[in-house]
């Protein structure tokens, strides 16, 4: 895990005075999920110069200074659709990890009165007409939570074309990582998987994987639960999602033999807590080794890896 979440990016010089200095590697590489793609390291680091004063318990007037140059990462995450249900959970989780966050959505700042909201730069705008100069310069990752339902044309436009436009822009601007919130296929029979919704999702996924073969992340959740805000009201989807997830986990051994049945995942695939999905995004932002396609269990595992 990188140090980016805990090391402030704004103070390049640190002076310490201590009798002993413990040296730890700045980058810790945990054993991590590496689905489908070869390992590749990327460094989004910048140099930080630290001056340490070593006294060895002697008088401070006789101390010597050691200059240490270290690589410390600072992250700037752009969340597309940050005002939505999943997007706002991503923004909140990123703020809690000390990551700089910019959100782009047509409605801009959501009507949420929680303190983390003030720490996000809310840009009102449409992915198709965005001023990417303002949004993407300096970004270290883009996470897209743009997607949804509607008629055939809208399904294509929001799930596929909007995300393809965003991936294209992110690549052009040299953003090193792109994370797409996609969807599980529910083990549906092929004729249903070929519906416009799933086809549009898979097209967007292909674009991410082809432009970001060694750093793109596709998260494929099922039903996402949490508190969804609609027109100022809160819909507690967790009242259904949480017990459902627990029951499925407790009965896993009995339901597993039924998994081969077409569409069985509509009943038996576990729902995903919106905060876990958001933490999986944070894991993707901060871990260079995390890329490829992530299923429900892998999303939950990735979330666990960054939970404190
Ligand atoms: N919720 C679930 O249970 C679930 C399950 C599986 C997968 N997913 C996927 O997860 C993603 C997020 O879902 P969600 O439930 O959070 O949806 P949501 O609440 O409707 O959020 C979608 C966000 O995208 C923004 N958006 C839409 N079109 C845009 C455009 N052209 N330019 C800029 N922003 C745009 C919306 O804001 P504006 O309208 O203000 O622009 C909103 O902030 C979707 O791709 C969805 O398919 C969701």
Keywords:
single chain, 308 residues, alpha/beta, Rossmann fold, seven-stranded parallel sheet, three-stranded mixed sheet, 10 helices, 14 strands, globular, disordered N terminus, binds NADP nicotinamide-adenine-dinucleotide phosphate, ComplexI_NDUFA9_subunit, protein-containing complex binding
Q: What would a concise description of this structure say?
A:
It contains ten helices and 14 strands.
Produce the secondary structure layout.
Blueprint: E1 14-18, E2 45-54, E3 64-73, E4 76-80, H1 85-96, E5 100-105, E6 120-124, H2 132-136, E7 141-144, H3 152-172, E8 178-181, H4 190-193, H5 196-211, E9 217-219, E10 224-225, E11 227-230, E12 233-236, H6 238-250, H7 252-255, H8 265-268, E13 272-273, H9 274-286, E14 292-294, H10 296-306
Parallel strand pairs: 1-2, 4-5, 4-7, 5-6, 7-8, 8-9, 9-14, 10-13
Antiparallel strand pairs: 2-3, 11-12
Helix pairs in contact: 1-9, 3-5, 9-10
Pfam family, one: NAD_binding_10
Domain NAD(P)-binding: 81-223
GO molecular function: protein-containing complex binding
